[in-house]
Design brief:
alpha/beta, Protein-Tyrosine Phosphatase, Chain A, 5 helices, 6 strands
């Protein structure tokens, strides 16, 4: 994972994962919670792997998810189910925000993530880390970076 941009409020990181199961056990970020833009072609993705990723990222402090790529609505919906179950179990008052971007280019989704995406008020002050992750397609990293770096 490497830093691609820093400003006064947030640090943006990028990472490549050859597959969902390669998500790290620990994130080396400067914040207790984080936003995630997940670029992934989910058409052949196993539901169990997506569910496991949702649970792992939530346990690590996920507070905002943007899903992009073919079948990203399914990714969004699986994360939503994990979020609802976690909120009911823990009695959280704040909501983990989610969006999916099936009709946008990857660069547009990355721009949205960098300039529009904002965690719910209870998480906003603590969320200083934003992670863009490309799964299975290393070429997406350059596009993610340029979208994050594009001016507001």
């Amino acid at each position: 994972m490497q830093i691609i941009k820093q400003d006064e409020k947030r640090t943006f990181y990028s990472m490549f994962l050859p597959r969902l199961e390669a998500w790290p056990d620990r994130l080396d970020i400067d914040s207790g919670c984080f936003g995630l833009l997940l670029a992934y072609d989910a058409r052949s993705g196993a539901e169990e792997a997506l569910r496991a990723l949702a649970e792992r990222t939530l346990a690590q402090g996920l507070v905002y998810l943007c899903a992009w790529g073919p079948d990203c609505k399914r990714v969004h919906d699986l994360f939503e189910r994990a979020i609802v179950a976690r909120e009911e179990e823990r009695g959280d008052d704040d909501t983990v925000m989610t969006t999916w971007h099936e009709d946008e280019s990857l660069e547009e989704a990355a721009w949205y993530f960098a300039h529009v995406a904002s965690p719910s008020p209870g998480y906003a002050e603590r969320c200083r880390a934003m992670v863009v992750a490309a799964v299975g397609n290393q070429e997406w990293l350059a596009t993610l970076s340029s979208g994050v770096m594009a001016p507001a």
